[in-house]
Amino acid sequence: MNDATHLLEEMNDRSREVFRRVVESYLDSGDPVGSRTLTRTLSEKVSAATVRNVMQDLEYLGLLDSPHTSAGRVPTQMGLRMFVDGLLEVGDLSEGDRKKIDETTTSNTADVGNLLDRVGAALSGVTKGASLVLSPKHETEIRHIEFVNLAHDRALVVLVFADGHVENRLFKPPPGQTPSSMREAANFLNALIEGKTLAEVRKVIQYEISRRRQEIDSLAREMVESGLAVWDGDDVDSARLIVRGRANLLAGDEEEEGLERIRTLFDDLERKRDIAEFLDLTEQGDGVRIFIGSENKLFSLSGSSLVVSPYMNADRKVIGAVGVIGPTRLNYGRIVPIVDYTAQLVGRLIADRS
């Protein structure tokens, strides 16, 4: 149990209701909530002074904060986390939202990239936020690996998968590589890859390199390590990040400082080559996860929230993720079922196309 959840259990009914009403009002309007306004909405008839005292106690606990421009209160990041974990009421997906998301799947195209582009656009349109879609990596077992020397600073990795799929990836080899050292590196890999996916090969190779470091020629070792680094993250075709609707997110923040932080966030996202972190965010547990502010290092500088869910292939392996970025005052109760449904739908569609 985290500290925020423990605090929630320790609060009396009045404090819990005041806290819930402050957060719900803030999520709805984005404005600080004052005690006089709150008094009119409480189920229990109490004075504004009593409500003000309760709000001061909640502020002392670190759950609410007072912006210097207003006498009202807003939830802190800790307060939002407690609300999401203990008080959030997740609604059902509306028929209108479901229909808009389903409409993206009406095409019979087998192009997964085109499908995910449309899903990202629909998700952004429905939520009025910015959507993220991480397209799947090729998870089929590898049959053969070959290195081809193109120039002194350029080489090609040819990957042949068990299903007949072939990928060619360019990379910069370590200095001093020769055709013979490239063949040695390829022979070393091919002796170990049978029946393994690319991710599994990487783990095996890392172990073998540490265990048999003295047995492997240093140049071949550098080749292997360099090649693996390229395969794991720099190939944008096999693990592509689709960002849609950045205008929606920018329109929701009128402060110039906030705008600049969010622009920086998106510039970083669009430059980012190693995007495996999005899968790391989702593989820790099933279903939708919510990251608020600095809980997610990718978005901590922008002060944004991320609602993200993995999608799986027919073997129940996580192969990608879909999510929505927005200001911390997202309508979580509505966004969570939308992201959950979209992730499940994408998983089924990719399984069908496979």
How would you portray this structure in words?
The two termini are 41 Å apart. The chain has helices at residues 3-10, 13-29, 35-39, 48-60, 77-86, 95-102, 112-127, 179-190, 198-211, 218-234, 246-251, 256-271, 277-282, 332-353, and strands at residues 64-65, 74-75, 130-134, 142-151, 154-161, 166-171, 241-244, 289-292, 304-312, 318-327. A hairpin with a 5-residue loop joins β9 and β10 (318-327). The chain folds into 3 domains: 3-86, Arc Repressor Mutant, subunit A (Orthogonal Bundle), CATH 1.10.10; 95-136 and 239-353, GAF domain (Beta-Lactamase, 2-Layer Sandwich); 142-234, Enolase-like, domain 1. Strands 7-3-10-9-8 form a 5-stranded antiparallel sheet, with helices on both faces. Strands 4-5-6 form a 3-stranded antiparallel sheet. By secondary structure, it is an alpha+beta fold. InterPro entries: GAF-like_dom_sf (IPR029016), HrcA (IPR002571), HrcA_C (IPR021153), WH-like_DNA-bd_sf (IPR036388), WH_DNA-bd_sf (IPR036390), WHTH_transcript_rep_HrcA_IDD (IPR023120). This is Heat-inducible transcription repressor HrcA. Residues 115-336 form the Heat-inducible transcription repressor HrcA C-terminal domain.
Q: Sum up the overall morphology in one term.
A: elongated
- CATH superfamily assignment of the largest domain? GAF domain
The separation of the N and C termini measures 41 Å
In percent terms, what proportion of residues is strand? 15-25%
Low-pLDDT segments: 231-238
Mean pLDDT: 76
Estimated structural class: alpha+beta
The name of the CATH architecture of the largest domain is 2-Layer Sandwich
CATH topology of the largest domain: Beta-Lactamase
How is the biggest beta sheet arranged?
Answer: 5 strands, antiparallel
* CATH level 1 name of the largest domain: Alpha Beta
Rg from alpha-carbon coordinates? 25 Å
Q: Give the domain tally.
A: 3
